[in-house]
Each structure stands twice: as C-alpha cells, then as structure tokens.
Amino acid sequence: MHELKPWLALIMQRRSRLVVGALLLALTLFSAIGLLALSGWFITATGVTALLWAAGQRVMFDVYMPGGGIRFFALTRTVARYSERVYNHNTVLSLLADLRGRHFAALALLDGATLSRLRAAQWLNRLTADIDTLDTLYLRLLAPPVVALLGITLVCGLIAVFHLSLALLLGAVLLGLLLFLTLGMALFGLHYSARRVEQLDYLRVQAVEQLQGLAELTAAGTLGLHRQRLLASSQQILDEQLILQGRIALGQGLATLGVMATVLLGLFGAMQAYAAGLLSGPIMVMIPLALMALSEGFAGLPAAFAQFGGTRAAAARLNQQTSMSSRLVDPAQPLPMPTDVTLQWHDIGVHHAGIQGFNLTLARNERLAVIGPSGSGKSTLAALAARLLDPDSGQLLVSGMPLLELPLQEWRTQLGYLTQQTELLHDSVAANLLLGNPGASNEQLWAVLEMVDLADLVDGLPTGLNTWVGESGKQFSGGEGRRLVLARVLLKNAPLVILDEPFSGLDAATRERVSARLEPWLADRTALLLGHDAALLPKVDRVVALSAL
Amino acid sequence: MKAITESGRRSRHWLRQQGLAVRPWLYAAVVAGLLQTLAIIAQMGLIAWLVHAVLIAKAPYSSLLWPGVGLGLAVVLRALAQAVQERCGQHASVRVRQTAREQLAADWADLGPIRLADRSSAALTNQWVEQAEALDGYYARYLPQQWLALLSPLLILLLVFWLDWLAALFLLLAAPLIPLFMALIGMSAEKVSQQHVLEAGRLAGHFLDRVRSLTSLQLFGQVGAATQSVQDAAERYRSVTMRTLRIAFLSSAVLEFFASVAIAVVAMYIGFGLLGYIQYGPAAQLTLFSGLLILLLAPEFFQPLRSLAQSYHDRAAALAAAEGMAALQDEAANIDSQSESAKQGADGICIRQLSLSYPGRGAVLTDISLQISAGQVVALTGSSGSGKSSLLHCIAGFVNPDSGSLTILGHLPGEQPLAWLGQRPFLIQGSWAENLRLTAPQASTEEMSRAIEAVGLGALLGAQRNGLDTVLGEGGRGLSGGQAQRLALARVWLSTADVVLLDEPTASLDEQSEAEVITALRGLAASGKTLIIATHHPALMALADRRYVLNSGRLTDA
After folding, report:
1. Average per-residue pLDDT in chain B?
2. Residue A398 domain-assigned (yes or no)
3. pTM of this structure
C-alpha cells in the first residue's frame, strides 16, 4: 500500500472536490434505493388497503405523500447521476494534466547517463499509461467502496428502525460481501493485473523497435520472423488478460449472487417477522426491495479491484522515477558567474569513459580542436563542460572557480553545444530553430539558415519555415538535419561554443561552404571543436589529439 | 461532410468484418444474456408470488418451501448466466484484438519503411497497442448488448403485456424515445470521439518526442517551456476528453431520466389501480402479485438499454480506432503492385528507364537506366537530396517506381533478401548477440565474433564482461556514434545475401575505423557480393569499380 501514499496525498489536495464528488455518487445511489423501496412500499400499502376496503373497513390512505416522494427520487436520481459523472471525471482529468507536467519536469532534471539507461518508448509509457492507470485511484478504488458503505449504512439503518436483529444480520453479511469484493478481488487479481502493465510496456518497446528497424529487417527478409515474434508476444499477453478477465467475470457473478442472496435473506427474515406480527406488510416488501436497489453500489467493485495490482505497480514505477531525479543539482549557494570564461579540465576522471587524470585548458577566445577516434572520450569532455555529466574525480574550473559551485541554468546560457546526436523535435522547422532562442525574429532564423546553407532548401518548401520536420528528422536527409541543429546552436549566440562533429554526414562541397560562413561567426568566441580529423573542422588555433582506448 | 460519412461507413464496415470471425462467441453471449433475463423474470415472479401468498392469500408457510427453493435456484442461475455472458464476450474481444494487430503488422510490411516515414513511430505504436485494446469494449460488451437491448426488454414487455397491457404501454412509450435520443447524441459523440483518438495519439507523440530530445532541451534551457507545452498538451487532451464524456454522459442521463420516470409512473398507476381509483382498462384486474411483479420488472426492462448506453462510448472508441486501422489498411491495399515485366538480365541488377516521384516533392528520380553485374562494387554519389538514397530504396523494394523496370539477380525488388545499412544505425535494447541476430537469426557465436572482428570492434567486445551476451548500454556504458554504426555494419557481414546496399556507411566513422571498414568492404567485394554504396567519401568512391553521379534525380556516368 505504501506505494500509493504519495499519490493519495496528492489526490487529497483536492479534498473538497473529492468530497462533493463522493456525495453526488452517494446521492445517486440513495435516490435509486429510495425510488424502489418507496414504490414497493406504496404498491403493497395500496394492495393491503384495497383488501381492507373490500372487507368494508374504513381506513385512511394518503396517496399524495408517497407519490411526491417517488417523483422526487426519480428526478434527483437523474440529476445526481449526470452531475456526478461530469464533475468527477473533470476532477480526475485535471489531476492527470498536473501529474504529467510535474513528471516531465522531474524527468528533465535527470542527467545524461541516467536518461540513456531508460529508453524513450518506456518513458512514454510511464508518462501516459502509468499516470492514466492512477486515475482509477479515486474514481474506481476510493469513492465506490465508500459510497457502497454509506449505502449499506443507510439501508441497514432503515431496516433497524423496524427490525434491529435482522438489520444487524444483513449488515454483517453485506459488510462481508463488500470486503470480499474489494480486498478479496484485489488479491485474486493481483498477480495478473500487476504483470499486465509490464507486459504492455514490453509490447510497446518491441513494436517501436520493429518500426524503427523496418528498413533493415525488410531488406534482410527477416521482417516476417520478427512479426511472428511480435504477434506471439501479443497473443501471450491477451491470453493472460483472458485469465484476469475470467476472474473478473467470476467476481461479478458472485457480486450479483451475494446481493441477491441478501435480498432473499431480507425477504425471508421479513416474512418471518411479519408472521410474528413485528412488521407490517408494506415494510416486509420494502426491506428486500431496498436491498435489491443496493446492488447498483456493488456492481463496479469486482472489475475495479481486480485491477488493483496494476495500479500499485504503476505507482511503484512512477515513485522510482521521482526518486531518481536527485543528481546534477544546483549548488545550495551558487557563486556569481564569472564574466570571462576560461575553461579548465583539472585532473578529471570518468570511470565509464575510461578517462583518468585528464588535464586541458581552453583559454578565452581560443579555438581548440580535440581530435580522436570514436570512443576516445571527446564527447564526454563536452558533456562535462555542459554539466550533462559530473566527473567521478577531479573538477572543471571556470576562470578558476569550480563549475559545480556555479548556477547550472545560468552556466548553460553561456554555452552553445552541438551534440554528436542530432535531436530534432517532431515540429516545424521554425519551432526547432526557436529552441535556440525563443525570441528570435524571422530574419534571424533566415540568417542562420543561410549560414548552414539551408535557406534555399527551406525557401523552396511549400510551407517554408512552417514545414513539419518528420520524427527524428526523417524527412530531412542526415546532412540536412545535422545542419538544422547547427543553425539552432548558431541562433543561441553563446560566447562559449562546443561543436561535436559538426559536419558529419555533409558532402565536401557543403562542408566547405558552411565552414567558410562559420568563420566570421566564430571569430570572437571561445570554441571547442570535436572530430575525427582536424581537416574536416573549421580552422583552429590549436589541436589536441586523444588516443583511442 | 461527405468525407465524414464515407469514412464512418468504412469504419463500420471494418468493425463488421472483424465481428464475422467471432460470431459464435457473440451468439453465445446473447444466449447467456437471454437466459439471465429469464432467470430475472423467474426471480421477480417468485418474489411477487411469495409476497402475495403471505399478505393477500394468507397461504400457510409450509406451502412456501418449494417456491422459496425455486427462488434460490433462479438467483444462482442469474449470477451464472451473467458470468457466462461476460466470458463469451471476452473471448470474442481477445480474438478480434489479436487479428487487428496481425493486420496492422502486415500493413506496416506492405507499406514499407519509406511510406511510413512521415508517420511517427509513437503514433503507429499507439495504434498497435492502445487502439487495438480500444476494440475490447465494443466486442466484449457492446455487440452482445446491442442484441440484448432489443430482445430482453421484448421478453419482459410480453410478460407485462399479459399482466396489464396499459402498464406495458407506458413502458413501450418510454422505450422507443430512448434509442432516438441516444442516436441523436451518439452521432455527435462519434465525431468528438474521433478527435479524442487523434488527440491521444498526438499527446503520445508529443511526449516521446520531448523526452527523446531532453538533452537538447536541457542545453538550450528550454525545459521550462517544454514542461509547459507538455502540460498544455495534457490540458488539451483533458478538454477534448471532457467534451466526449459530457456527451457520452448526456446519453446515459436521458436513459436514466426515462427509466426513473417510467418506474414512477408505473408505481403510481399500479397504486391507484389497486386502490380502485382507475376504472377503465385492465387496472381493475390488478392484484398485488401482478402489480408488484410489474414494478420489479420495470427497472429490469430498462437495464439492458442502460448497459448499452454505458458501453456506448466503447462503440465510439472502437469506431475511432477502426477509422485509423481501416485507413492504413486501405493505404496498404492501394500500393500499385509491381508491373511484372519479362524477367531480364538473370544475373546482376538491371534498371530500365526508372522514374519515381513523391507527392509534394515532385520527381525524385527521372529515367534512370543502369546495369550492374554481379560482384561489382558501385558507388552512387551526388549532393544531399540528389536521389541516391531514393535509388537505393527502389532497389531494396521499399518503394515501387512510378515507371520503368528493375530486377535483381532475375528477381523483383523485395523478393530476395538483401543486406541493408541506413544512415542511422538501428540497434535494439538487448545484447550484442540479439542485435546481430536481428537480420541473421541463425548466426553462430563464431560467425558473430568474426563479423565483430571484421568491423574493428573486436577489442571492444573483448572488454565486455559477458562477451556477446552483454546488454548494450548496461551500467551507463553506451556505444559512441561510430561504434554503434559499426555494430550495425557487422550485421551486413553476417548476411548471406548477395547484394549489399549501403547508405552513407562511413558518415560517422573516424579515419581509423573508416580504414578498417573499407578493408573489410574490400574483402566482402572480393567474396563475389554486389555492393551498391551511396556515399560522398573519396575512399569509398575509390573502392568502387564503377561510379555514378546523381544530379537532381538524373544519372550521369563519372
């Protein structure tokens, strides 16, 4: 249960909305009970009165009071039902929107190493499906048992007015039933419902992988084989779902059986009490009918509680994720940002990249190239400077001050970093560029596109800057996508620039053109350029070569 | 408007088609549902009879034993039939969902990587996983309930008619109004729900995309703005969902209203009738038994309709899901089948007057003719966007040309396996071996080790704790760009295919790796395989026997 604690706390922040929602739910159930119980009482009372009249007895019977009551319950039932549904769903969905935003913000604090350990498809599942799963918490798991309990109390309280011991007996049976339909069903479905979320997660990852590898798998003729595997996974998951659903069907049958058994118990008990002269005829009929109307309060419980395992697993996963977001934090008392940036890697050690005792200084306005084969740790040096990663030993110094002591966000504004990986958003060309500088004008956008030799291409597109970039830049060729992210860095216009293999995927002619246009832009900046070969980079003042591992 | 009804018809047709295969389960669910109604009628009848016997007929208690036992049996039968109905629906739903997934996966294969490129893989995955799941309620509940909503009330109505035709008339008058209102509400719910599915897909794509780009967002200090945009997307999702729900709930409120009012009217009528206030019609014949039974059956008369309304959004969700699936299926079915021409040039690759254009991009390849003999190494060069990748796509069979012919070793493209390496390495989360076996499922450990050696990753593999079984990226240790590309390249070595297509294979490799790759490629070429390389790297061009330059989709011999 402890997995759900933070979520319950979060939900409870909207306590007043929850209470109103539960009251509306209870009102709906009460009206249903009132409608059926009062109607039964009324008909029996008229039947009995008619019998007395036929026997020649003069008894008074007021038809207007119960008639008004019946109409009242009929109306409140309709109104309460509709308002309850709209009100409660709105509560839950606004809670979900909050949760998503908050979780994305938590993810965004993670460092590069942690991010790479999880994968985008899984993140997606966590963000959408898991949070979706948690919506069951209030609307399916919290409110209904409370409302059912209120219903039991109302009905048994009503019966207790006429027959206390019968009310106690029925109350005990109904509470037992409630316990079975909630706790019992939760335990009954725990295993399979917990697995289900995991399995759909796995299925999703497999599907994404197949889609991303469609080219290679198609060409190699192994797509059919992989499709069989994918479908086998799907079948297995559906088979397990069928087991869980079978238990739910059983639970629902038992819910009906349980409620109807109490109806019979109430009927036989009331008949006995009537024979003993403890109850009137109309009350004898009212008791089983009130119990019958109660069944509505029990109907949804088995299905909801059988899924409890899934809800708990989703909560556990989300909790794990929030507890991870503790690395790469801002210093408690950051030092002021130095105005002048000299960057020094001092005795740096990063275990996983095989870097040890590394020293390097990048002076102000210096243009330095670090050259080395892939795997030699070039990108790690850049990641350290951008604080996507903190070193295991040693430290980075900015004009003599430890980087760890500087305010993280402010430091990153000083830095224009073109990562080795081309990351493009599934959004317009303009939106992708504007990441670099949200306030940039259209003229500025065209200027940077011109610098990377993309202006003609974008201008030639029917919708120009508003053209949608395919997922991961698929509609642009590798080299075009590369230049687009380079343009984004140029737009940021930061004093310190790190370009990691800026020209990968570009043909020689394009490389020459872009390199020449970059020259004046780089002139008064501090720049770190990374690559395999200094000849393939813009001109530099100094070259440092790293050897392979 | 016409387009909307057109697509609606297509979705309904698609849903019907899927239902045909699971008809036995659906019929079984309907039969179980009817059995449940019969059990309910028996239960209510016995309750009314017992009450009448005790209160009016003053029957001795000993005579009530067997009706009491019968009542217990009716209740057990009712619960059992309910569980069975549900179970049958579940079986139908599972079958349909699996079939839908089979079909979608087949459509992916038919459309191929290039035609699918402008769809986000998150949206496609969402369709495959979630949208297929969205079919559940429609087949498990809605379809059987659709029949039961007609048949069960009819059974009850017949009985009530026999008991008191005027009360039956009340129910009958209320009943047809309900489907009418529901149809009106349902029509707009359908449209809103389609938008809802679209929005859910967009939300999924939006998330995946932002999460993938987290590093860039961090570096550009745009995390705050991205969080806001994620929140806005979720908020948009909320408002669209609420619009669907408000309408969906409205249809159940209408039902609730009619059901409640009908019960109230029936109760008043029976009460007044029993008191003798109503002199006309059958009211005079009412007894406590018939009156109570009619009252008890009145809620049950509306119950099937209410269940149907509750699963009405299941129908809307299924229709919306079907819309996307039917569209993809149609698109896959509409691909021009290859114009089969006489098989020519049994050896080598023979391209005759091939032209290709994409909607929105115009002509990509124009009148390409090319003969590549088996074992040749060919370099295709040209600036970005000149069409060299598109030519490779045609040879690989990912797209069919608009005109012209193409045969590979006497076969049409796509008929025979090829080895392919794209611009971006494709790696899955899994071990080295799993990644290598993606395209060569039968590869032995030795073969895999040799391939790894051939691409110059031998030393790196040697450093892995569990060798080929080491999971990629384990312990935070990922592969660099060049290493990832070389691992993907190792699959080419494992391939038994005679033709190898390489799309800028050295774009992200450093000089040393590049030299190793070129050496290995030379070995591969010597082994008699045909290599077609799209590249602008001089070293790779030098490796080629023939060089062709593509310029705005036209071929020139260099």
Report:
1. 84
2. no
3. 0.78
Listed residues B297, B328, B359: the one ending a domain = B328
- Asked if A477 and B385 come within 8 Å (Cβ–Cβ), the reply is yes
Number of domains into which chain A is organized: 2
Question: Is A344 within a domain?
Answer: no
Ranges of residues in chain A whose predicted pLDDT is under 70: 1, 112-128, 135-136, 322-329, 374-375, 470-475, 547-549
Option in B206, B213, B274 nearest A47 (CB): B274
- Quick check: is A66 in a domain? yes
* C-beta atoms of A214 and B215 within 8 A: no
Strand bridging mode B362-372 / B377-381: unpaired
Structure confidence at residue B346 (pLDDT): 60
HEC readout, B89-132: HHHHHHHHHHHHHHHHHHHHHHHHHHHCCCCCHHHHHHHHHHHH
Structure tokens at B86: 């549900």
Q: Quick check: is A539 in a domain?
A: yes
Read off the pLDDT of residues B97-149 as tens digits, 9 standing for 90 and up: 999 999 999 999 988 888 887 777 778 988 899 889 989 999 999 999 989 98
Are B476 and A501 in contact (CB < 8 Å)? Answer: no
Which residues in chain A are contacts of B261 at CB distance < 8 A?
74
pLDDT band of B189, cuts 50, 70, 90: low
Q: Domain end: A304, A324, A344, which one?
A: A324
Cβ contacts (< 8 Å) between A71 and chain B: which residues? 264
The encoded tokens of residue A267 equal 């009927």
Report the Cα–Cα distance between both ends of chain B, in Å, rounded: 55
Instruction: Give the number of other Cβ atoms within 10 Å of residue A165's Cβ.
Output: 11
One domain for residues A89 and A232: yes
> Which range, A156-160, B348-352, B396-400, has the best average confidence (pLDDT)?
A156-160
- Residue whose structure tokens are 């993140």: A123
| CA dihedral (B74, B75, B79, B80) positive or negative | negative
Do residue B465 and residue B435 come from a single domain?
A: yes
Q: Which of residues 270-299 of B touch A (CB under 8 A)?
A: 270-272, 274-276, 287-288, 291-292, 295-296, 299
- Contact flag A105-B101 (C-beta cutoff 8 Å): no
Neighbours of B416 (CB within 10 A): 16
Calpha distance B413→B417 (Å, rounded): 9
Task: Find the domain containing A302 and state its range.
Answer: 2-324
| pLDDT at residue A509, as a whole number | 87
Within-domain flag for B341: no
